[in-house]
């Protein structure tokens, strides 16, 4: 026993050293420097815990079946869309390369479509989706990160129930961990089953049923497709704007979102994304997969849908966002509720400002998440020094819209934040449009936000307490752990 105790310190030291040596040669592989340094620091401080955590959630990509399904689906999409004519639109200078980038990374082509307006009013958005479901004749496809059957969403669920009674096939996907914490979760599932709605959970975690996967990888997409002819997408979940939390209701906190209604060819891209996620979770191939209805309207505007997520090893949304920022010449307007960019996007944004581009960023004055609030705050000084104008949407409202515009030539709207999670850990969808009216509609939303916000000044920011600066920096480091 004495000998064991004598050798114990040396053994522990050797194990500690071996772990750090392994980490040095393993972690940096195919990983951004900031992420590598964050993981290495964690393992240096807590070797055993850090290494275990790394092997559990350290990879930003899925492997195995999900990776194979994604690869196969990309090939199928390419084959089904190979003969599609190009969008009938003259693209602005430099945008053609973005279209080719998206096509190569996600396989989806540029198509035509028509925007039927943006919905910045929470209840009006749900009402428009409800109306679309009520008019369904063949199928309804719903894929939304958070679903809750509450007083605000009751009409939407009721419309789906009525659609089933009319013989419409209603299929629904929601994220398991994203939805399960909200009131009425189990009752919602029972009510949908009773009504005949076909529903499945995305990325489910049921250890007792043998279904386990990394809890940090989620499906964050939000989309609705009706009959392959009408589609909705954006940032809004299907839940009351208070997210049913007592604290939110008490202080008057509500989420402010932005959705878009679409028709035309582009809706088939939304349905293709749904079909892939449905097959991934259920193993069922949909008869409507990818192929649009014969009598669909062509549409008036050039649009391209860009899916992204841990199944894509090339981080499509980050590459598109960064490329578009570098394309900016005059004006760049960004809105992201969770703004924690990686080095490439941050450098692109600050470089644009240094080049003389008028860059503005809209964020919540107070985010709903502690880590995100402090992590994104750590970037404000660098942005302000570069000349970026930061607008804070007044609390207690959470500005949850996700979109940006580049000059008058391109706009992007979708479910993707500009943060590490959306780039590497969450399945997302983003829609790029190049029609002047599409861009102008998004710019009008930015004008509304600007009128409602207050601008953060460099003088104000430099006076914040030292303790807050310390917490900001710590949370910035933690946000890079992926």
Mind explaining what this structure looks like?
- The protein is α/β, with parallel strands linked by helices and 482 residues long.
- Helix content is 46%, strand content 20%.
- The chain is built from 19 helices and 20 strands.
- The strands form three sheets. It has a 16-stranded mixed beta sheet that branches. Strands 8-15 form a two-stranded parallel ribbon.
- Helix 6 (122-134) runs parallel beside helix 7.
- The longest helix has 25 residues, at 2-26.
- The protein is globular.
- The model has no long low-confidence stretch (mean pLDDT 87).
> What is the CA-atom radius of gyration, in angstroms?
23 Å
User: Can you count the beta strands?
Assistant: 20
Give the % helix: 40-55%
- What profile does the largest beta sheet have? 16 strands, mixed
Mean pLDDT: 87
Uncertain stretches: none
- Multimeric organization: single chain
What distance separates the N and C termini? 42 Å
Strand content: 15-25%
Continuous helix count: 19
General form: globular
Helix/strand/pairing category: alpha/beta
List the main descriptive attributes of the protein structure presented here.
482 residues, alpha/beta, 16-stranded mixed β-sheet, two-stranded parallel ribbon, 19 helices, globular
